[in-house]
Design brief:
This protein is an all-alpha fold. The chain has 2 domains: 33-125, no CATH class; 126-187. Helix content is 69%, strand content 0%.
Length: 199
């Protein structure tokens, strides 16, 4: 900052207009529900920096999450925690409750305590969600059982048809064999008669 710019700034902040602006700024800051951790960096700069590394656009909830957490990873306030919880609630409503010990889209190495924090129970399904999940699983079991029973019946019917076909083939072969035996016997009888004509 150049000397004349500094002097102009000091004159402005000591003037009536500067004091009014300071009062408005102080009042506005006191009314803020959320304090962020971005410092003097604008949210646009934070978003741009985050986009540069993974190569993906940063969504509003993700940006809020980045700029409203303390160094230890906990939310700045309970209001901020509620906002951060919105996407988890939406995911739970659409896809159902988290499975015990797992967090969707986070891979096998992340457990709910690591992802949501030790005091958070947002990954725990409610009683109605649990009952709905149990009912869904029961319905699925009934459906699988019915499908299995149908498949078993079909396989049994196919086996019975094959057995009947094999039995019919065997009966036909026996009939032909008996016919051939009779023909052979008739021919033998005729041959004997021919060799030993009656005197």
């Amino acid at each position: 900052m150049l000397r004349y710019q500094w002097e102009d700034a000091v004159r402005f902040w000591n003037s009536k207009k500067g004091e009014d602006r300071e009062r408005v700024g102080t009042s506005s800051r006191q009314k803020q529900k959320f304090t962020h951790t971005a410092g003097s960096k604008s949210f646009a700069c934070v978003a741009q920096a985050e986009e540069a590394s993974p190569g993906q656009k940063v969504g509003r909830l993700q940006l809020f999450n980045i700029t409203h957490r303390k160094k230890d990873g906990t939310p700045m306030s309970s209001e901020a925690a509620e906002i951060m919880d919105i996407d988890n609630r939406i995911i739970n409503e659409v896809l159902g409750p988290e499975r015990y010990g797992r967090v969707r889209f986070q891979g096998s190495g992340v457990n709910p305590t690591q992802y949501f924090g030790s005091t958070s129970h947002q990954y725990m399904p409610s009683e109605s969600q649990s009952q709905a999940e149990v009912q869904r699983l029961k319905d699925q079991i009934v459906q699988i059982q019915a499908s299995t029973d149908e498949k078993i019946s079909q396989l049994r019917a196919e086996a019975a048809a094959r057995d009947a076909e094999a039995a019919a083939r065997e009966a036909e072969q026996n009939r032909k064999y008996n016919e051939l035996q009779q023909q052979l016997q008739s021919m033998m009888t005729m041959f004997h008669q021919f060799q030993n004509p009656p005197s």
